[in-house]
Write a structure and sequence with these properties.
Helix content: 25-40%
CATH class of the largest domain: Alpha Beta
Radius of gyration: 23 Å
Number of strands: 6
């Protein structure tokens, strides 16, 4: 009888530990342990400190993917940054993109696809764009992407829009080992 009771307690404990990981038995939003991975969950990301073009969500996180709408050269109040200056607008668009990615829990190194749309694009503009978004164009293993010259963007004066797709590589951040090396004997 004692072995049967011990087995039931062990299985019961395993059930309690495993149910949050299976997406069941959640205690409010995020579950018992601060949240669990749900490959079907959708999270809309719209930072209040970042202006957006009407009709679009800044980003949508679905499972391990983050889809970021075209980020443009608008400041937090919705004002155009760098009218007529592609370099200034590119810096602002990439800064906005990095902010949205950070809020979504990813970084420029997690971007797997990057698309750049430039009003009146000329091949000479490419160096300016790469310099403005250097974090997004590593020498080794850059993201897949497209650069398109376009006639216009939805708001007068905008010269560049950058959208991205990022992959969340892990559902946890590794613990930092602050203990240091073992003492030498």
């Amino acid at each position: 009888m004692r072995n049967a009771t011990l087995a039931m307690l062990t299985l019961g404990a395993l059930g309690l530990v495993c149910t949050p990981a299976l997406g069941q038995g959640r205690a409010g939003a995020g579950g018992r342990m601060g949240g669990s991975f749900d490959p079907t969950s959708t999270r809309y990301i719209n930072p209040g400190t970042l202006a957006a073009l009407d009709g679009f969500t800044h980003a949508i996180r679905v499972g391990q993917m983050v889809y970021v709408s075209g980020q443009v050269a608008l400041d937090s109040m919705g004002g155009l940054v760098g009218p007529g200056d592609l370099a200034a607008q590119a810096r602002q668009a990439f800064a906005n993109l990095e902010l949205v990615l950070d809020i979504a829990g990813v970084s420029p190194s997690d971007v797997v696809q990057l698309n750049v749309y430039v009003v009146g694009f000329k091949p000479a503009d490419w160096a300016t764009i790469k310099a403005a978004g250097a974090k997004f164009f590593p020498q080794r293993n850059p993201p897949a992407g497209t650069v398109l010259g376009i006639a216009a963007l939805p708001r007068e004066g905008l010269l560049i829009s950058v959208d991205a797709v990022a992959l969340i590589k892990a559902n946890f951040r590794p613990l930092r080992d602050d203990r240091g090396a073992p003492p030498e004997e």
